[in-house]
TrEMBL record:
Domain UspA: 2-142
Coiled coil: none
Similarity annotation: Belongs to the universal stress protein A family.
Organism expressing this protein natively: Zoogloea dura
PANTHER family per record: STRESS RESPONSE PROTEIN NHAX, UNIVERSAL STRESS PROTEIN UP12
InterPro entries named in the record: Rossmann-like_a/b/a_fold, Universal_stress_UspA, UspA
Database matches in Pfam families: Usp
Domain of life where this protein originates: Bacteria
Name of this chain's protein: Universal stress protein
Length: 142
């Protein structure tokens, strides 16, 4: 069984995996185990001083599940089961590639665009960084 990791940031662009994934999965030899992941950016230390650790964990989990909701529901409607994971980290590409390694994923399937062009100018492309860091093939969808 192939393990496929799909990073989702909650943007409309990240929902593009819904169009491409079913046909791509049909080409695999056998069933696939799908993992959806959302990476939440940690809050600043100033906030952390006033909000308890449990509250912050709940907040990140809620926000992450919201970001995953549309893609998870779309996959379910297509009869594709997927597990959902919400992680917190400064660098989404490092978290994504590390999670793929930890879970023994065979491939990462992700969109090329999530944030707006201006943010990408300053932050760099997460997809390009995942391609650079990942130990497994990365399929990029426009």
């Amino acid at each position: 069984m192939s393990k496929i990791l799909i990073p989702v940031d909650g943007s409309e662009a990240s929902a593009a995996v819904l169009k491409a994934l079913p046909a791509w999965l049909a080409r695999l030899a056998g069933p696939a185990e799908i993992h959806l992941i959302n990476v939440q950016h940690p809050v600043g230390q100033d906030v952390g001083q006033f909000v308890g650790h449990d509250k912050l964990q709940d907040f990140h989990r809620e926000e992450g599940l919201k970001a995953l909701a549309a893609v998870h529901a779309g996959l379910a409607a297509a009869g594709i089961e997927a597990s959902r994971h919400v992680l917190v980290g400064e660098d989404a590409a490092v978290v994504i590639s590390g999670f793929a390694r930890e879970k023994g994923c065979d491939e990462i399937f992700m969109t090329t665009h999530g944030r707006g062009a201006l943010a990408k100018l300053f932050l760099g492309s997460i997809a390009a960084e995942v391609v650079r860091l990942a130990d497994v093939p990365v399929t990029l969808v426009k």
